[in-house]
Amino acid sequence: MWDYLQKTVLVFILGALTFTPFNILLVHFDVLQYANPVYLGIPAWMPVAFGVVTVLGVSFFAWMDRLLGVRLNYNPARLTFEYLLIAAFFIAILFFRLYPYLLSLSLLVVVLVRLIFFHQEWDFLYFVVGVCVGPTVELILSHFQFYTFSDPDFLGMPYWLGLLWGAIGIALRRVAWVIYPLEVPSGISRMKI
């Protein structure tokens, strides 16, 4: 039980520290605005929300992998690639925010390359879960005026938002592999993949 609590706190901190700075940048560059900002353009509850969403996502994806019977060995050092990919998505959003079609097309190309060449079993399913759940939650939050996007394209959200959440879904799955390791296929050492 203590081990599970430690892992949950670690994932919470990881989510809060990863997504809060990116969100501050999105506010700074006028991609979105919060209704009641407290510090650096974001409300006080935002880091907590990022931590909770990360915990829920990682826990759900770990459960789904076990339900689907996924067995693999994942090297935790590869999480750097996931972080850099998410950072590249956010940086692209900042640079191409005035060109939503170009931004959406470029993010789609990155996602397709990722799903074709750097994928694991069931990655597409996790991408679809991210594409469906993330924007739905954002739609609900923006509907209740917690925040608004500066240049909404569809239902009050930008086109690229689904692609971002799909990439985050795949990245959270990788975090789940590190925090809650899967059963290793027989004949493979722990650090091989």
Describe the structure.
- The chain has a two-stranded antiparallel ribbon.
- It contains 6 helices and 2 strands; from the N terminus they run αβααααβα.
- The chain has one domain.
- The mean pLDDT is 87.
- The relative contact order is 0.17.
- By secondary structure, the protein is mainly alpha-helical.
Tell the overall outline.
Answer: globular
* Helix and strand composition category: mainly alpha
Numbering strands along the chain, what is their spatial order in the largest sheet? 1-2
Beta-strand proportion:
under 5%
Total tally of structural domains: 1
How many H/I helical runs? Answer: 6
Helix and strand pattern: HEHHHHEH
Largest sheet: number of strands, sense, barrel closure: 2 strands, antiparallel
Roughly how many Å apart are the termini?
A: 29 Å
How much is the radius of gyration in Å? 17 Å
Percent helix, as a range, is 55-70%
Number of strands: 2
- The average pLDDT is 87
Which parts are unreliable, with pLDDT below 50 for 5 consecutive residues or more? none
Brief account:
This protein is mainly α.
Please outline the helices and strands.
Blueprint (H helix, E strand, L loop, with lengths): L1 H27 L3 E3 L11 H23 L10 H17 L4 H18 L5 H21 L3 E3 L11 H19 L14
Antiparallel strand pairs: 1-2
Keyphrases for this structure?
two-stranded antiparallel sheet; 6 helices; mainly alpha
